[in-house]
Amino acid sequence: METKHATPKASRPYMPGYGILDAAGGRGLLPWDWAVERLRTARNYWIATTRPDGRPHCVPVWGIWLDDVFYFSSGAKSRKARNLGANPNCVVCPENGTQAISLEGVAEKIVDPGTIRRFVEAYNPKYQWDLKPETVLDMGPIFAVRPRKVIGLDATPGEFQGSATRWQFEQGWPLHPMLTKNRPPSRDAGLRPC
Questions:
Q1: What would the DSSP string read from start to end of 28-93?
Q2: What is the pLDDT of residue 11?
Q3: Which residues sit opposite 138 in a β-bridge?
């Protein structure tokens, strides 16, 4: 059974030049359940990370949406695992580009046995796989991506400008030390984020 968390704050994303309507325009803001359904039911997801030299890296993964967190496993020496070890910021997108979701978050390795068990219990039936909680970490780490911001939109004809929604999460999640230590000043100070 999935734990319900507080609904994140919804608003329109800042997207100048796209004709985005105000929050009451079009079909209004999408409900958070709309995003959760797409995050929960997608089979394939794209995860974008950043190499230590700043170049992007994006690959498909299988994953699980559980308790408002996205979980996926990886080979310990994979490029994405090494990237996340150096910089835990990442983007996760379910495969559907028409009813699109873009989740920006912070990844951390999971070692808690109860969380690993729940991941395996959700993963195995979804992918007809046979992971074992006792041995899954032998293959590589399990990452949890905690969302900071999610953008969703319906790109079916006539829906885009009146459906684009941004959900922002409370910053109560534990932050990786890299996110708080030696942080350089923002290059985009004064700009509005999506």
A1: -SPPHHHHHHHHHH-S-EEEEEE-TTS-EEEEEE--EEETTEEEEE--TTSHHHHHHHH--EEEEE
A2: 95
A3: none
Q: Report the amino acid identity of residue 66.
A: L
Beta pairing partners, 72: 143
Q: Is the pLDDT of residue 184 over 80?
A: no
CA distance 103 to 11: 15
DSSP state of 27: T
Q: What is the pLDDT of residues 96-139, one digit of tens each?
A: 999 999 999 999 999 999 999 999 999 999 999 999 999 999 99
**Cα→Cα distances 77→53, 58, 74, 89, 134, Å:** 17, 16, 8, 18, 20
115: buried, middle or exposed (CB in 10 Å: 19+, 13-18, 0-12)?
A: middle
Tell me what pLDDT residue 20 has: 93
Domains and CATH numbers, the chain: 9-167 (2.30.110.10)
Which one-letter amino acid corresponds to residue 164? A
pLDDT digits (tens, 9 = 90+) for 1-29: 455 567 899 999 999 999 999 999 899 99
Q: How far is the C-alpha of 80 from the C-alpha of 88, rounded, in Å?
A: 10
With contact defined as beta carbons under 8 Å apart, do 42 and 96 qualify?
A: yes
The candidate with the shortest Cα–Cα distance to 42, out of 91, 89, 101, is: 101
